[in-house]
Amino acid sequence: MTGLVLVLNCGSSSIKYQVVDPVAGEAVVSGLVEQIGEPGGPVPDHAAGLQRIHGDLVDSGVDLAAVRAVGHRVVHGGRRFHAPTLITDAVLAEIERLSDLAPLHNPPNVVGITVARADFPDVPHVAVFDTGFFHGLPEAAATYAIDAGVAAQYGIRRYGFHGTSHEYVSQQTAALLGREPAEVNTIVLHLGNGASASAVRGGVAVETSMGLTPLEGLVMGTRCGDLDPGVLMHLKRTAGMGVAELDELLNRRSGLRGLCGVNDFRELLEQVSTGRPEATLAYGVYVHRLRKYVGAYLAVLGRVDAIAFTAGVGENVAAVREDALSGLDGLGITVDPQRNRSGRGARIISPDGARTAVLVVPTNEELAIARAAWGFV
Ligand code: ADP
């Protein structure tokens, strides 16, 4: 049987879409509608955004009748959802209820699902959760050491995000090594605008760097990652900052942008090359945090067969891969400079016979979502 899957990733002001042939494993067309709902802009709301996508698909010659399913990236599945889930009215209501946990992310996902169901009423719509792969984290890894009653009452635990990418990349890593996922222990470093690390033992996630929200862990483009929670109280007491201001500070004005004014890694590298001190420090903080996580996950896993770099920075910035893992030869981790700096796509960049293979593995969340949705056709 052949057919296509429309994959949608709805943000508050954008919809990313891709039409995927899940059997061939290829994207047929992809695109992005931005500035949704911005005053005076051309796209007043998500329904209009989807109409535009509909038009773009027709213009690019996609046979809409061949679209047999729609796959939706949903950020937070909470405790309730982990596996890809056929969307019914009841499921949608539950995803909406989870907005408490992900106020920035789940509401636009719900809007996107609602308009897409109206637009493609005759095919299954499937939710694929960013938290899903981390649903089974060991309790010791998922639990914050705060008052247990408060944590239980407010759903405070570590959920993890980017799960679709971590799962896909860990599986691809095993395939590239010619082994079964069940035999391989992998550290996955997803370094995009958002960034996260995971420790995967035999195909099962046992640790990850993001927590209740996607704010914890690595240094990101605009997010701070790990921070002493005391900083929040300090800023409230001394600077009088409220929740909205803190939210904005830590999510949008921190990370690389907070340190040196730019969040795009290409611009950062350019500034580093001119010797701008703020950029050099930002790069240093970024790489230091990454090394810390690699070290922690070596200890969590005990035996590490592979370290896989993925997403925009992980796939494209050889210097980050080299700097994050330098000096670890004694632990069996070596990056071959020649392999690291040449070649493209999925590849091994450690020397032959190294105890731990280091790899570049391009992520493909859309394909993973499309395949999950195709399971319901
Ligand atoms: P997201 O999906 O989280 O928006 P991506 O995985 O696309 O993010 O990664 C975006 C980041 O990757 C940006 O910081 C961008 O500068 C960086 N990036 C992408 N391509 C390159 C490249 N060729 N060289 C350096 N950085 C790159």
TrEMBL record:
List residues binding ATP: K16, H190, L191, G192, N193, G194, D264, F265, R266, G312, V313, G314, E315, N316
What is a GO molecular function of this protein? kinase activity
Site (Transition state stabilizer): residue numbering on this chain: H162, R223
Q: List localization entries.
A: Cytoplasm
- Tell me which CDD domains the record gives: ASKHA_NBD_AcK_PK (cd24010)
**Reactions catalysed according to its record:** acetate + ATP = acetyl phosphate + ADP
What are the binding positions for Mg(2+) in this chain? N9, E365
Check the record and name the PROSITE patterns matching this protein.
Answer: ACETATE_KINASE_1 (PS01075), ACETATE_KINASE_2 (PS01076)
Which residues are noted in the entry as substrate-binding? Answer: R73
Which metal ions or organic cofactors does this protein require, according to UniProt? Mg(2+); Mn(2+)
Read off the InterPro entries from this record. Answer: Ac/propionate_kinase, Aliphatic_acid_kin_short-chain, Aliphatic_acid_kinase_CS, ATPase_NBD
**Keyword list, A-Z:** ATP-binding, Cytoplasm, Kinase, Magnesium, Metal-binding, Nucleotide-binding, Transferase
Q: Where is the active site?
A: D130
Pfam families given in the database record: Acetate_kinase
- Pathway it belongs to? Metabolic intermediate biosynthesis; acetyl-CoA biosynthesis; acetyl-CoA from acetate: step 1/2
Q: List the EC numbers from the record.
A: 2.7.2.1
Family named by the database record: Belongs to the acetokinase family.
Listed under subunit, the entry gives: Homodimer.
Q: Sorted alphabetically, which PANTHER family does this protein's record hold?
A: ACETATE KINASE (PTHR21060), ACETATE KINASE-RELATED (PTHR21060:SF15)
Q: What does this protein do?
A: Catalyzes the formation of acetyl phosphate from acetate and ATP. Can also catalyze the reverse reaction.
Supply the name of the protein. Answer: Acetate kinase
Q: Name the species this protein comes from.
A: Mycolicibacter acidiphilus
Source species taxonomy: Bacteria, Bacillati, Actinomycetota, Actinomycetes, Mycobacteriales
